[in-house]
## 1
Amino acid sequence: MRTDRDPSAASTRPGGVLYVVATPIGNAGDISARALQTLREVDGVLAEDTRHSRRLLAVHGIATRLSPLHDHNERRVATQVLRRLEKGEHLALICDAGTPSISDPGLHLVRRVHQAGGRVRAVPGPCALVCALSVSGLPTDRFVFEGFLPARRAARRRRLASLRSETRTLLFYEAPHRIEGTLEDLRDLFGGDRSAVLAKELTKVHETVQSASLEELRDWLRMRSEHVRGEFVILVAGAAEESASSAADDARTLLVELLQELPVSRAVEIAGRVTRCERNLLYRLALEISGKGSKEGAGL
Ligand code: SAM
């Protein structure tokens, strides 16, 4: 690649650069000049779906060779990519939409390049979670991205139970055929009054950002359930600080009782099943109660 103006390009370290390049999540205009230049000038582009990405490159008159890197071949391809980088080739990694390795292939490859002492550079751009957060009106100073929830209902509800007391804004990706069930679970486990936002089809013609309580959002979606298509990010306001601390208070009360009869590990195990508080918190509380840890360490 001729136009690597990155300061680290002056490094004497051998090997090419792996560029992690973001592409549009809907609106074809959302691709940066630097992304296009990178895709044009690298020696090869690794793409999740080469047919899909060939169209993107063709629209911009880019003829760089594409090769597949997806969930099913990433480990094998990573070894070949490392060899190419060692030979001095520069490569770009893209996914079907948005930023690679965010709920998409790429993490394993990026890790392998780091482990081998190679260079990975970001060419940033669209990412559905950041895009959704920026238009949601929910607090953006502290947030937690949970990716896709488990597909199976019982596992999904367990995961949500463990997040009930989370005070940061929560973000989830969800497939259209599960959106209704997931909203139902969110309402059941977080309470119908909790504020939430559905960000649908961001940057596309039918972009919708619907802000309401979980109860209202579930009803809103139910009324449209026959027409629910498209891509969604679900955002949920964090729990009020008081309810988070009262969950910890309940856990503390339970642990006090359990620790009269049981060792720390067993008490933490049972409290984990009953309260769904995080194991680390329960463990710190249990150590504090049993006099083996400091109050400060319990984080309360
Ligand atoms: N790598 C992508 C990124 O940077 O956001 C995410 C890919 S993940 C496989 C696909 C999920 O992202 C969808 O199921 C949806 O939850 C979310 N998503 C992607 N594009 C979206 C859009 N235009 N509007 C709303 N959500 C979107």
Note: Confidence is low (pLDDT under 50) at residues 2-12, 294-300.
## 2
Amino acid sequence: MSSIETAQRYFHLAADVMDLSSNMRTLLLTPLREVKVQIALELDNGEIGTFIGYRIQHDKARGPMKGGLRYHPEVDAEEVLSLASLMTWKTAVVDLPYGGAKGGISVDPSKLSQGEMERITRKFVDEIHDVIGPDKDIPAPDMGTNAQVMAWINNQYEKFHGFNPACVTGKPVELHGADGREEATGRGVAIVTEAALNKLKQSVQGAKIAIQGFGNVGSFAARILHEMGATVIAVSDAFGGIQNKQGLDIPKLLEHVAATRKVEGFAGSEPISNAELLAAEVDVLIPAAIGGVLTKENAKDVRAKLIIEAANNPTMPEADEIFEDRGILVIPDILANAGGVTVSYFEWVQNQQYFSWDIERVRAELTKMMSSAFDRVWKLATEKKVSPRVAAYVLGIGRVGRATILGGI
Ligand code: NAD
């Protein structure tokens, strides 16, 4: 099943609960605009490199569109569209005044030099600058992109449109970025993990956790959950995984990864595969890498009682059904990883007002918004006797649908 089929399957499950008409379903699923561009540049070795870039704008009923930019070899139009629609429901679930979009370039960033990364990014902005902007569509980091890439986007956009820091979020703090944006998705994941554990009558303190992916989201989630008293026993990245059943020393592991770029080889740990990590004996499993990792083949092996979807689209629908049958609670991506877009929103607000918040305010507002979204979803799930995923979609689709009708078609 493709990523777009997965996203639409979840949409329809909620639309059935809402008794949504087929015309309304078609309207809400159809993207507003799909942009596909050629990005040609001279590579460091003097050869010409040609890449394809995408920006897909899904819905703007509730405000300017918002969504990350992914640099990854598997980026294609279908994946970007599915992620753009996820952004529409996600911004609505946390009640941000945004619609949804997503973009990306089909490229392996690990094979690019820093100079090539900069040139490819600037070329991409040259092609899409007229369809993005602070009141139209605001990009942000995702897999394979970071604050430096956002700084180049800001700088290139301003060459066309003048001073405009709110045109992109996830910028470095020195360049109108928000303190706390880098950690935001991981912190949001930690907040939601604690809230969900409490619903299962368990404390986060001492809870055993396995995390797949140790990039921006996975590493901050590990750090913050460790600070909250959880025991992170296994982590992995694209090169492999490690575990220590007594708990990994996360601060030391972060130093190891900063020095070696991999979790592998960390002193005081034993190697495990990504498949073993997904089946680890833990309370909480946090997929925080790529999509489609929990499948009908491996769902029966999962031993966690709670899955927090830090990555986008990590669970295939067949696996989701198995988890529901097995009583494994899944907190869906459109709620669990919404911390990033929430602090992106705070950054955009600060940029528009030329006024910076301190980190305590960012963290306090994030905690408030994530906790309130979690409570709304939980209440809806309980009232309608549906899973948190269906409840989150019902909440998001309902808000977008009402804004669409009220605005007029
Ligand atoms: P990242 O590029 O910083 O890190 C990705 C991590 O996943 C790396 O450790 C990488 O080695 C690992 N990985 C890649 N392929 C893997 C594989 N096959 N098996 C195991 N590990 C693998 O990306 P990120 O920003 O941390 O994003 C991770 C996920 O979270 C993505 O699904 C992204 O869409 C989602 N997300 C990110 C943000 C954000 O603010 N960065 C916000 C919302 C959702």
Note: The first strand starts at residue 33 and ends at 42.
